[in-house]
C-alpha cells in the first residue's frame, strides 16, 4: 500500500494562514534602517528574543524611531540610538528617554507585555548571544527593567557587555544582527564627535520591520 498523499501546498497555505493570525507575525524579522548617511538592514532574533524583538517591532512600525538622531557614537565600540529626546540632535536630555510608561505591546510569541511606568521592558537574559560586531543590543542603566527604546550596534566584539560574562556587571541582551551595511555602521561610529555626539547630526529617517 502507498502512504496517504498529503498536499504540501495545502499544508503551506494553512501554515501561512496560522502565522498571519499571530501578533507581530513571526515572519517579520528584517529591520530596515534608513539614515541620513545611508541604509542598513538587520535580522531580528524573533524566535530567541520574543519580548525584546516584539518591543522593537512595535516601536519601529509605529514610527517611534523616525526622526531620532544617533546621540552617542564611539569608534571601535558602538553606536547608540533610540532616545526620543534625540529628535533634537543637541538635546542635553539625549540618552535619558524611552517609550511612554504603562503602554503595551505584543511579544513575538503572542503574549501581551506591559511596559513599566518608566517605559521599561522585562530583561530577557535568556540566550547566550555575544555582543559581537554588527549585533543589536539593548541599552540599559544597569537597573532591572531599565531597557526601553534605546539600543546600540556593536562595531567591535564587546564580550564584556554580555549578561553571561562575569568580568563586569554589564548585562546587555543581543536581539539581532546587521546583515547588510556593516561598513556603513562602522562609518557612523567614526564620524567627528563632541562628547561622543556626532558634530554633523545623523538622523534616522525611518525604521521598519517586514
Explain the overall architecture:
The chain is of the alpha+beta class. It has helices at 8-21, 50-61, 182-189, and strands spanning 30-35, 38-44, 72-74, 78-81, 104-106, 112-114, 135-138, 151-154, 174-180, 193-194, 197-198, 204-209. Helix content is 16%, strand content 24%.
The number of helices is 3
Give the class from helix and strand content and strand pairing: alpha+beta
The largest sheet, given as strand count, sense and whether it forms a barrel, is: 8 strands, antiparallel
**Strand count:** 12
Q: Which sequence of SSEs, written as H and E, runs from N to C?
A: HEEHEEEEEEEHEEE
The rounded Rg comes to 18 Å
N-to-C CA distance: 45 Å
- The proportion of residues forming helix, as a percent range, comes to 10-25%
State the shape. Answer: globular
Which range does the strand content fall in?
15-25%
Strand order of the largest sheet: 3-4-8-7-9-2-1-12
Average pLDDT number: 91
Low-confidence runs of at least 5 consecutive residues: 1-26
Search tags:
two-stranded antiparallel sheet, 12 strands, 16% helix, alpha+beta, 8-stranded antiparallel β-sheet, 3 helices, 210 residues, 24% strand
In short:
The chain is an alpha+beta fold and 210 residues long. It has helices at residues 8-21, 50-61, 182-189; strands at residues 30-35, 38-44, 72-74, 78-81, 104-106, 112-114, 135-138, 151-154, 174-180, 193-194, 197-198, 204-209.
List the helices and strands and how they pair.
Blueprint: H1 8-21, E1 30-35, E2 38-44, H2 50-61, E3 72-74, E4 78-81, E5 104-106, E6 112-114, E7 135-138, E8 151-154, E9 174-180, H3 182-189, E10 193-194, E11 197-198, E12 204-209
Antiparallel strand pairs: 1-2, 1-12, 2-9, 3-4, 4-8, 5-6, 7-8, 7-9, 10-11
